[in-house]
Amino acid sequence: MGYLLGIDIGTSGTKSALFDENGGFVASYTAEYPLFQPKNGWAEQKPEDWWEAVKTSVSAVIRKSAVHPSEIVGVGLSGQMHGLVMLDKENRVLRPSIIWCDQRTEAECAELERVIGKEKLIAITANPALTGFTASKILWVKNHEPEIYEQCRHILLPKDYIRLMLTGEYATEVSDAGGMQLLDVPRRCWSDEILSKLGIDRAWLGKVYESPEVTGTVSENAAELTGLKAGTPVVGGAGDNAAAAVGMGVVKEGRGFVTIGTSGVVFAHTSAMHLDPKGRIHTLCAAVPGQWHIMGVTQAAGLSLKWFKDNFCFEETARAEQQGGSVYQLLDDMAQSVPAGANGLFYLPYLMGERTPHLDPHARGAFVGLSASHQKADLVRAVMEGVTYSLKDCLNIFGEIGVSVESMLACGGGASSALWRQMLADSFGCDITCTRSAEGAALGAALLAGVGAGIYHSVPEACDAVCKTGDACVPDEKTAPVYHARQRLYDSLYPALQNFYKENIL
Fold this sequence. Notes:
- Helix content is about 40%, strand content about 20%.
- The chain has about 500 residues and is α+β, with helices and mostly antiparallel strands.
- A hairpin with a 3-residue loop joins strand 16 and strand 17 (about 265-270).
């Protein structure tokens, strides 16, 4: 039997997971690394940390599994999107990567729209100028660190830097490249018009592949460092959300998922391109060749609860450590003790600015309606509900542009909470179904490797064979109306605070 390896380069760590050719889980290992915030709204990581985590996690998985490296027939890569990796002519990293949640590039986004034109930019890249996307980051380095820009000879995304380290190839694939704002998304190739107007040398960018295509093989040097066999095929892979979609079987029209990880995502697969002329949601190439997906993003979903836990839940953290349990389960129990609506308290999850639907890097989090009668449990529930309302905003836009979602899956750390899944079902007005596999993007990357290795003929065939679902949360007729009524109040809060955010820039 052959085995497939999925490597997911996330924000908090890299997970390497091994599966048999039937999608059966064999072993996984996650190696963590830090995130640096030199200034308010900035977010950076060191690409060298990702590579160290890949070496550590791949080696650990091979040891744990006792699978011989020669039995691993393919490697797939997934990773956080949009991060800027700049290399010199010797492939040396020139500066820390400016990652997806960084918000420093507002002026460069304005420059993008001025140089390209707002409507033209959406027509070519399927998205407006976004602070989180890669093109504005390139312009920021050009404008603020010209000495580094002058040394640049290669521009890669996070997972594609790992591909270079594994194979020696400069390559990317359509689902991740679509988030750079340099790709012609309808044509699934680099946009010469944008590159020319921005003065970016096309030779700096890797070759563009479809997600299941083989992009190279593991080099002798990488084999020594990871334990993989030299010559093992490495496929294009996918950006984290596109890979997660494959791992859950969301690869056909009408299927979607919601994830509560560090960020929150509402995602739907489409066989044809759908654009939001207002630029509130993202349209990107899917990991299925010739297909697309749309997605809305809440910048600080699970991050909101983590922030609250880290700053205000010392007692609960200590108790969880003493009991050998999860602090998040204790927070779940606290929130469960509060009725739907959090006793009149709202939370706005804009800790890192926002993307959908407001596209505002200056937006900041807030508790609204706080009184002396509120207790910590009310705040915990308000945080969970605020993230839910924000995700519902994303789903509402899907309907506006003619995309219907008939089935919705849930994934991510937050989705392990039965309470949070119930909130989503009540707010969305549809069943929210769990996936049986917890491996998400790593499984999706492995399945793409399976297609590249010839085990499966297509991505949908791989998903039909492997992806299974579990129990569903059904909307509660008592609490769903509460969320529907409070959504209207939630939606009124950002407009009321918008001018404050503009005047309170730090």
